[in-house]
């Protein structure tokens, strides 16, 4: 609902907006809205006759040039000077970075402060009870430790299969040696240790090679019996020449007497 009795219409020819707080130009006496209130906006005919003054900084009393060609206002120029170039004590204190509270949590956007100081064991920075764990406040120390643990685990996984294969092969060979050498020693005292070791190695090779099938217990017993028979034959053959030699010696002795 419009109230034509309140406010005034803008004096710009293409606007005529009803403004309840109109702007009165002190140079040409016209009434304009907020958009056409500046002199350049309504093309004031007396804008070149105005007394243009350079604003002065209220803190350091230095002039602040205004870029009117860019549409800057005196207030904008003074504020920019205070924020960047002013050398007064108040302005320098305002531009000085605020000191970091040693009790505030280092987590981003967390301003919680504990009554009792609490620091992280890894990075030695202040934390709160909510973000006390290393993974909660992006602890750099925990990242380095995690990287070391990951690399160590990877190296262990790389070396574990090789050591396992070696231990399995050594254990299999020792088991075969024990299973084949002990019965042979107990069954016959004539078998030497070299023969037992050779048979154990042959059995382990037969078991490890996929093309040659492993020998069963019957075959092992048969080979053991054959080896025992050969050893007995050898021992009996070696005893006969000794007996013959002893008998010939006795006969020679008798003939000499």
From TrEMBL:
One of its GO terms (molecular function) is zinc ion binding. Residues 4-52, 99-147 form the AN1-type domain. Pfam families: zf-AN1 (PF01428), zf-C2H2_ZFAND2 (PF25403). Residues 170-190, 226-244 have a biased composition (Polar residues). Residues 169-195, 225-257 are annotated as: Disordered. One of its GO terms (biological process) is proteasome-mediated ubiquitin-dependent protein catabolic process. InterPro entries: AN1-like_Znf, Znf-C2H2_ZFAND2A/B, Znf_AN1. Keywords: Metal-binding, Repeat, Zinc, Zinc-finger. GO terms for cellular component: endoplasmic reticulum. Residues 245-257 have a biased composition (Low complexity). This is AN1-type domain-containing protein. The lineage of its organism: Eukaryota, Metazoa, Ecdysozoa, Arthropoda, Crustacea.
